[in-house]
Amino acid sequence: MELIRVEDLRKTYRVGEVDVPVLRGVSLSIRRGEMVALMGASGSGKTTLMNILGCLDHPTSGRYWLDGEEMSPLGADQRALVRSQKIGFVFQNFNLLARATAVQNVMLPLDYAPQRSSPGEAEQFAGRLLERVGLGGRVRHEPSQMSGGQQQRVAIARALVNRPSLLLADEPTGNLDSRTSVEILEMFQQLNAAGITVVLVTHDPKVAAYAHRTIRVVDGMIESDETGAVLSGDADRAGGRGGAPREAEDEAGSSPGQRLSQFYGDGTARPRGFGSSSFLPATWRTALGALRRNKMRSGLSALGVIISVAAVIAMTEIGEGSKAVVQKGIASMGANTVMVFSGSTSTGGVNQGTSTSVTLTPDDAAEIGRQCSAVSAIAPLVRARSQLVHGNRNWVPDQISGTTPDYLVVRDWQNMAAGEMFTDLDVRNGNRVCVIGTTVRRNLFPEASPVGKELRISNVSFRVVGVLGRKGANMIGMDQDNVVLAPWTTIKYRVSGTTYTNTNQSGSSSSASSVNTLSNLYPPPTSKYPSRSSSQVANYPQPVRFTNVDQILVKVASEEKIQATIDQMTALLRERHRIPEGAEADFDVRNMTEMMNMLSATTQSISLLLLVVAMISLVVGGVGIMNIMLVSVTERTREIGLRMAVGARSYHILRQFLVEAVVLCLVGGGTGIALGRGASVLVRWLINWPTQASLTTIIAAVLVSAGVGITFGFYPAWKGSRSDPIVALRYE
In the prediction, which pLDDT does 169 show? Predict the structure, then answer.
């Protein structure tokens, strides 16, 4: 029965613009179970013929059948599948993986078999084959630890591991001494006796003598096809003089299947698989093994990604920390807060600025709270500046504010360190009570609790009823805990010294002509009382209580309702102050949310800039990965050719190098995340710079790392997968 049949096979190589014919119409047939020697001088075309018979190359023209299936029209991946199932190669230069053990080299074709065994079963089977070729004690040795003959035996075991029906040996004894050559050739005879068809490619007549059929190739054509007695005295192993069919021998003895089963040491002639699939795909195992065998190169490849991801994580966390500090500072001033200031005045053509006019009243605050439905809390504010005295200690706080209990609600400051807030009753009665911040407590009451004790503000005695919780500095660096809060009526009428006043205590302008005069801010249409003389006004000032406040703080229920509330407040105050349409308002409304959004946008822009810079470095790291992978593909060209020769398809090579690149980037990304987090913690500990971890950034870093590996690893992987196995095996 024919295993190989070739009709008018031709192969022409094109070198530049010149066609070089190598095979010139070769026709032959080889029966199953024969041992044939292709003999010829160097350049005769015998190796090219072997490559075509082994499906490593395809002919320019002609037809080739292997085991009844035509091979000529098959593509590269289809030929690779045939090699994996039916053909084993024994190369002259052994072509073993230098940093793999003997058993790992033997297992190599199993990674690309259509039905793969589990790693444990594959290793057991490979070890059994090494025992069959006399290397049972060398399974864990690398090629550098073995002699040439032992390396060739490993190559033979590798060729047999997929149970091929055709074994091709290219100059199998070319690099061996005469004694080892005889041992190897006798092993081929044993394999042939077991039922495997063997084709030896040689230029040495002594090697050809071990085959019972010799085909001489001269100048790309078959010159002769001779049969004869083999050099070994075992006639049975030769298959009979003249190449008698194996079927005839099988009638008298065991069948080829039984002989193969006996050789492999199992009960089946040609199983299609050796066990269950491995949890980890073979391509992943191959890629991880390659990375493990080249630790230094792998580490240098991942270094760029490590640095880049660490920079991304560190910069992002520092930026997020800064953003959080800004948001915390703004939030400490009160979330969803709207501030209403009194207007400005002009003196001698000079604008005195916001809050220099007397325009806002407590009634304005009350009406805003009553008529604006979205307002959840409102607090009028009166400011003063004075020295605090307690015993032999004194202190000047940043703020002395007169307000209502709702001030703490507006400022989100409900937590008290000690005591409690004064009440609305204290505001109505003008009681001399106050609460103080932690900074004031530290300076005036360093050792004892201040609750219930007295302090003086402008020689007015106040009883401390509570201590505010710590607030910290605001967004411009002012200490918010350096504050005293008291009922606004007490501050207005007792501390500021303007119990009966016509001016704003925080922004009044005086002149000689305005001393003790009254200013009717909102004059009635007609006077109800007779006017007094100037001397009466100067000598007997009438206590007309026109009460103003410096500022009104408004807390809106939600951020979405802020603008509508501002519009309502503006319309209400213009109506109350009788401001004609089109005239300039005598008050100013400021939205803290706008300030928060502006600062947040600024911080976000800075963070984005840092992220872009880090991403650029990540791209640079990706380019480094691509360069290293390109070098790796070039360096491992022979390995790629070997893998293709033993059955690897193009997608196996593509996937292997892609996996290597992605694993490098993922490992680099993970290491970079750890280093970036460490750098962030060091920055926070050593220089007290705020940082904040971001899970989104960490996930993004991992995804970007994988993306960089796929993106920059694809071209080297694609280039490797497009390699011609013939050219790759000859690469030096």
Answer: 93
